[in-house]
Design brief:
Elements: E1 4-8, E2 13-18, E3 21-30, E4 33-40, H1 50-64, E5 68-71, H2 74-82
Amino acid sequence: MAETVTNNEAKSRYELHAEGGVAVAAYERRGDVVAFTHTMVPEQLRGRGLAGTLVKAALADVRDRGLKILPECAFVIDYVDRHPETQDLLAR
């Protein structure tokens, strides 16, 4: 099964559907800012790099929409710190 990331706006979260479960990056929309509040990968899916894939796709979607981010989740904070190409997405 191909791993795809979708924005489930009804649940305010990005979802990565993979065989065995769904990884999520929860967010709160605050005007033109997407505040990422929590990232969760089910235990059976951990160690496969899915959280990075999920956040990369979520940030690409935010960029495509012309929005900014507020990383409140430790994983998203670390991701942005490790990927300087995402620094321009930070809400100042």
